[in-house]
Design brief:
Blueprint (H helix, E strand, L loop, with lengths): L1 H29 L12 H8 L3 H13 L3 E4 L3 E4 L10 H11 L2 H25 L2 H16 L4 H19 L2 H11 L9 H24 L41 E3 L12 E3 L2
Helix pairs in contact: 1-3, 1-4, 2-3, 5-7, 5-8, 5-9, 6-7, 6-9, 7-8, 7-9
């Protein structure tokens, strides 16, 4: 038991310490203590300030270099890189910026990118979706509706919806980008009222994406599929009819999409138009 605890201390805890140093350093950079183009203090001084070993500090600095936040030049110091060079899709970089910087511009850009990717996936899925995926997509959307005011289950259902849509579209890259953007959301929000509003907007976008898939390939924007008669049966081996579109949901089409923010700060006006 003692050896097991010792191993946990030696293996797991240093990694957690390095992650904590990464977050604290990134926060101080965002706060302007270390502006782009400036050098960080010497390793010995930073290690003493954070009360960690120089090994852990170097691990943290290397992690920030991999995220393109820092440039390490051996023998010449460590420099903060311009924000334009950072890997904004790194989950930690994105989370810290949204949590502490609260940039309205970043919030708007994330919403536009996410909506554009969902639109693309919905267009592709309308042509490629299989009957089983159609059922899974409808089921995930129904779970989102049922959990419209319950953040945890809603987030899980929204994740299932996005993954099913990506599988139907055959585009895993889009899924990875969207899930990375969704990391800061995580079903959490300091302001309950804002969280409920954001969830409503998220559901609205999912409804529109589902309507695009249900409308089928080549359907004009704004058209809705005609539900199959209640008595209609599906012959063996034939595709399952497209599910009925919820009242008010309109298909998403390239060139005119609904921009919905999915983050902790700054909810934009619902259904603003954006060109893709």
């Amino acid at each position: 038991m003692y050896v097991e605890g010792w191993n946990v201390h030696r293996v797991i805890r240093p990694a957690r310490l390095a992650n904590a140093v990464v977050e604290r350093l990134l926060l101080r950079i965002l706060e302007g203590e270390f502006p782009p183009g400036t050098d960080l203090p010497p390793e010995a001084a930073l290690a003493a300030e954070f009360a960690v070993s120089r090994t852990i500090l170097r691990e943290a600095l290397k992690a920030l270099e991999e995220k393109r936040v820092l440039r390490i030049r051996h023998g010449r110091g460590t420099t903060v890189r311009p924000k334009a060079e950072w890997n904004l899709l790194d989950p930690l970089v994105l989370s810290v910026q949204l949590e502490y910087e609260s940039s309205p511009e970043l919030v708007a850009e994330l919403g536009e990118v996410r909506t554009a990717l969902l639109t693309l996936m919905a267009e592709l899925a309308a042509r490629r979706i299989h009957p089983s995926q159609r059922e899974q997509l409808a089921a995930a959307l129904e779970r989102m509706r049922a959990a419209a005011e319950d953040p945890g289950p809603f987030h899980d259902a929204a994740l299932a919806f996005t993954r099913t849509l990506a599988e139907a579209a055959g585009n895993e890259v889009a899924r990875c980008v969207i899930e990375t953007i969704d990391v800061p959301y995580g079903g959490q929000e300091d302001n309950p009222a804002k969280l409920v509003e954001t969830m409503k907007l998220r559901l609205l976008l999912a409804e529109a994406a589902h309507a695009t898939v249900a409308a089928g390939p080549g359907a004009p924007a704004g058209s809705l599929p005609v539900p199959a008669p209640a008595s209609a049966s599906t012959a063996p081996g034939q595709p399952v009819p497209a599910p009925a579109t919820p009242p008010g949901a309109q298909p998403l089409r390239q060139g005119q999409v609904a921009t919905v923010p999915l983050n902790r700060h700054g909810v934009r006006t619902p259904m603003q138009s954006a060109r893709v």
